[in-house]
Design goal:
Strands 3-1-8-10-9 form a 5-stranded antiparallel β-sheet, covered by helices on one side. The chain has helices at about 10-25, 60-75, 105-125; strands at about 1-5, 30-35, 40-50, 80-90, 100-105, 135-140, 165, 170-175, 195-200, 200-210. The chain has 3 helices and 10 strands. It has one domain: Cyclic Phosphodiesterase, Chain: A.
C-alpha cells in the first residue's frame, strides 16, 4: 500500500496544464507525461505502508496514523491562494530527468503547510522526510535520459497561469493495478474513497483533511 499526501489543484487548473502539455508533447519525445487527473503537489511520500507487518514503523494502523497526522497537520491553517509558476527541471534543464511547474504565489504557504504535516507525521512515529519539501507539480518524467530542455522550458505551462485555492490535503493510495470502480470521497478519518485512474496506476483518495482557520 503506497501512500502519499498531496494537494491537488482543482479540475480547471489541471485541464489548463493538460492543454499546455498537449501543445508541446510529441510522438516519440521520450517523456512520460502525467495525465490530467494525476497532476498534484506531493507534500510527503510515505512509501509502502504494509499493515500486515508488526514492527515499530509498519504496524497495523499505519494508514490511520497518516490520516490523523493529515488532520492534525492542517489544524489552524486557513485556505490560501496559489498561482502556478514557471516550468523547471530536475536535476537541471540541461540534463532533465523530471519536468515540473512551481508556484509564482503561495509557495511559502505551501511550504508551511507541508511543515505542519511533517511535524504531525513525526509525532505519529514516522521517520522524518529524507529531504526538505520544495513545491513542484510534476508534469513529465524523462524516459530518454538527460534531455536538454534549457531552450524549451519557457514553452511549457499554461499562459496565463491559473490561480487556485488550496483548501485541503489528500491522503492518497497509489497502486499499479488498473480499473477499480470509483466510490465516495471521505473526510480525514473516513473510510476509503474516490478512485482515480492514471496512466499505469490508480490513485485512491483514502481521506481528506480540510483547511479551516
Amino acid at each position: 500500500m503506497r501512500i502519499f499526501l498531496a494537494v491537488f489543484p482543482p479540475a480547471p487548473v489541471q485541464a489548463a496544464v493538460a492543454d499546455a502539455i498537449a501543445r508541446v508533447r510529441r510522438q516519440g519525445d521520450g517523456l512520460a507525461w502525467v495525465r490530467r487527473e494525476n497532476l498534484h503537489y506531493t507534500l510527503r511520500f510515505m512509501g509502502d505502508l504494509d499493515e500486515r507487518r508488526r514492527d515499530a514503523v509498519y504496524e497495523r494502523g499505519a494508514l490511520a496514523r497518516v490520516i490523523t497526522a493529515a488532520r492534525e497537520g492542517v489544524t489552524g491553517v486557513a485556505p490560501f491562494d496559489a498561482l502556478l509558476g514557471a516550468a523547471d527541471a530536475f536535476p537541471a534543464a540541461q540534463r532533465a530527468r523530471v519536468l515540473w511547474l512551481g508556484l509564482a504565489e503561495g509557495g511559502e504557504a505551501l511550504v508551511a503547510l507541508a511543515a505542519g504535516v511533517e511535524r504531525a507525521l513525526v509525532a505519529q512515529g514516522f521517520a522524518p522526510a529524507a529531504r526538505p519539501f520544495a513545491p513542484h507539480l510534476t508534469i513529465a518524467r524523462v524516459r530518454a535520459r538527460d534531455q536538454d530542455w534549457s531552450g524549451r522550458l519557457q514553452d511549457v505551462g499554461p499562459d496565463p497561469a491559473p490561480r487556485f485555492r488550496v483548501d485541503r490535503v489528500r491522503v492518497i493510495e497509489s497502486t499499479l493495478a488498473s480499473g477499480a470502480a470509483p466510490s465516495n470521497v471521505g473526510r480525514a478519518g473516513a473510510a476509503p474513497s474516490n478512485s482515480v485512474r492514471a496512466a499505469g496506476s490508480k490513485y485512491a483518495v483514502r481521506a481528506e483533511a480540510v483547511l479551516a482557520s
